[in-house]
UniProtKB/TrEMBL annotation:
Residue ranges of domain Zn(2)-C6 fungal-type in the record: 14-42
Any one GO BP annotation for this protein: positive regulation of transcription by RNA polymerase II
Protein name per Swiss-Prot or TrEMBL: Zn(2)-C6 fungal-type domain-containing protein
GO MF term (any one): zinc ion binding
Start and end residues of each stretch annotated as Disordered: 55-81
Localization terms from the record: Nucleus
Keyword Disulfide bond recorded: no
Organism the protein comes from: Setomelanomma holmii
Alphabetic keyword roster: Nucleus
CDD domains, A to Z: GAL4
């Protein structure tokens, strides 16, 4: 029994009800207070699960048919249409037995083992908004994602005594005491280390002896992230804290593939270079960029190795590695071919059964996949109408998936949900209209859809949406900025396709929203809680500046330069280069600016 700071005793494990519901137990004695608040009877903390009465005619488990496997373990071949919910108690019990099933195929085994490795250790922290009213499915998804994100911090405990080789040595010697010391637990330490060792072998993770050297560039990159990048990101997320943004445990490097290691170095070096003040020595930037290219090459080589092998091609770590590398590519000074990574990632997601099936199998991947969704949606706004990236599934299925995940997407954008979904609808309308135009036809329904979209955007009320409290003015400001930005995107992009007409009324509306957007941006750019979420609205203002004077264009360009230094990324500088080329053409219009695919989001 452990002692709290007040001297009260606490249990050393979760109660069975919290374990079944996949919640973080408070370990209170004699009964869990979380169960009492939920109106549940706490079954206690015994080593054996307590017996439960079953109504006549009901069963809690069934025998499997010969040579058949539980559905939870197989990588599905088609997308599920079910909603995201907690697993049942039966599913969870089956899940615990997964490591003892040896005839699973590699992708299925990977799903089971990877999640088991991350759910062996618990976290005692919860976000302060945990008890806010939410739809049940959304709340369940948020709780799973938050607990998984926080559990990553607990992995730091695993490697207090060594790396993979030392873990393997403890397992080989069947040294129960050493295993218990390593995990700081007497609860089946050897079995838990064996399970962890399997996931490391499954992903061909090396021993990483060099990570014990504090001067190693990978170790320094993690320390740079924790000390320089993380505090600024957390400060910027004060309005909507992001549960996926956590401190990176240094010893967690031992269970991550080399591709993520080298990508981490690239991210840290890119941030350092772009954060340098004006007038800093160019030699510093040149020296560090050469390191970026070296580690970038090593990351590509490691990714090729993983994608080229059957057992790791569709694994969770491969998906995370590709997305992390793609995000880094968006920050590189050069216009990297990020679309090839996005297309490859989509194929892997399809091979795993699509977004919904993948999320049901591995909810811990949700924070990773929402970044991919965000990148694709924003990229489609800044790409030609005929060259967009499709998410996995039909537009209706994608809209449903994004709505379920919007609680996780929102902290990255602060874009009001209605307007974010309107962006998706505009993207889809552009793609449909472009396909018809290329066929030499016209669909009158497209014009009606465009008018309906514009009406819905105009009807949005920032005052009604803004969150009450100390930061009401900032919520109102960001809502107004996004309303004008989305209205301009709708007007200019659909005018380029002749869906919306170039009438005096339409052009007047475009000019009014342009004035509102510039005015809102000038105020929002001064707020440290808003400045990190303004790249896309500033880009929209830059496109609309094609209809304006040189002073407006100069202001947009200078703000993008300043934003690059504040955020430590080259994405605003890439946007600046695209806009300057567009302004020089003196041919205003959305498609005139984005004649090839771009993305300005990170």
């Amino acid at each position: 029994m452990k002692q709290t700071e007040s001297g009260e005793g606490t249990a050393t494990r979760q109660c069975w009800e919290c374990l079944k519901r996949r919640l973080v137990c408070d370990h209170a004695l004699p009964h869990c207070k979380k169960c009492q608040k939920a109106g549940k009877e706490c079954p206690g903390y015994d080593d054996q699960k307590p017996l439960q009465w079953v109504e006549p005619g009901e069963v809690t488990s069934r025998r499997r048919k010969k040579n058949s496997l539980p559905p939870i373990y197989t990588a599905p071949t088609k997308e599920s249409t079910g909603r995201l919910t907690h697993r049942s108690a039966k599913d969870f019990e089956l899940h615990l037995l997964a490591s003892d099933i040896h005839d699973l195929d590699a992708p299925a085994l990977d799903v089971v083992e990877y999640e088991r490795a991350y759910t062996l250790w618990k976290s005692s922290n919860e976000p302060y908004w945990a008890d806010l009213a939410e739809e049940q499915d959304a709340k369940a998804m948020r709780e799973i994602v938050f607990q998984t994100a926080m559990n990553i911090q607990a992995i730091d405990q695993i490697f207090n005594l060594g790396n993979r080789d030392e873990i393997a040595d403890v397992v080989l010697r069947r040294d129960h005491k050493a295993a218990a010391d390593m995990l700081r637990s007497e609860n089946q330490p050897l079995k838990r280390l064996e399970r962890l060792l399997r996931i490391m072998k499954l992903h061909d993770l090396p021993s990483y002896d060099y990570l014990t050297n504090e001067t190693n560039e990978i170790v320094q990159a993690v320390q740079y992230y924790n000390l320089r990048i993380l505090p600024t990101v957390k400060a910027a997320g004060e309005l909507a804290p992001n549960p996926a943004v956590i401190m990176f445990p240094l010893r967690a490097l031992h269970i991550l593939p080399p591709a993520i290691h080298h990508t981490l170095v690239c991210l840290a070096l890119n941030h350092f270079v772009h954060s340098l003040p004006v007038g800093a020595a160019k030699t510093t930037a040149i020296e560090n960029r050469s390191k970026v290219y070296r580690h970038r090459g090593a990351a590509i080589q490691a990714l090729s190795h993983y994608v080229g092998k059957d057992k790791t091609r569709c694994s969770d770590l491969t998906i995370a590695s590709i997305l992390m590398f793609m995000s880094m590519e968006l920050q590189n000074p050069a216009m990297a071919d990020w679309r090839s990574h996005a297309s490859g990632l989509r194929r892997i997601i399809d091979m795993r059964g699509g977004f919904k099936s993948l999320l049901r199998q591995t909810p811990h991947l949700a924070p990773t996949l929402v970044v991919y969704i965000l990148i694709v949606i924003i990229a489609n706004t800044c790409s030609p109408s005929w060259d967009q990236i499709d998410l996995s599934g039909t537009p209706q299925e994608n809209a449903s998936d994004v709505k379920e995940l919007h609680l996780l997407i929102f902290p990255y954008t602060l874009c009001p949900p209605q307007l974010f979904f309107d962006i998706m609808k505009i993207n889809n309308l552009r793609a449909r209209a472009s396909a018809v135009l290329f066929a030499g036809e016209m669909d009158p329904n497209h014009a009606l859809d465009a008018q309906d979209l514009l009406t819905a955007i105009e009807a949005f009320s920032s005052k009604n949406w803004a969150q009450p409290g100390d930061h009401y003015d900032e919520w109102l400001r960001i809502g107004t900025v996004y309303q004008s930005a989305v209205a301009l995107y709708c007007t200019m992009s659909l005018q380029s396709l002749t869906i919306l007409p170039e009438t005096l009324e339409m052009n007047s509306m475009r000019s009014i929203h342009g004035d509102r957007l510039i005015e809102g941006l000038k105020a929002a750019i001064k707020s440290p809680r808003l400045v990190s979420f303004l790249i896309w609205p500033i880009v929209v203002a830059g496109v609309q500046a094609g209809y304006r004077d040189e002073a407006t264009r100069s202001w947009v360009g200078s703000q993008l330069s300043e934003l690059s230094r504040k955020l430590g990324t080259s994405s605003p500088l890439k946007a600046q280069a695209v806009l300057r080329r567009y302004w020089q053409k003196e041919e205003p219009g959305w498609d005139e600016c984005f004649d090839r695919p771009y993305v300005f989001v990170i």
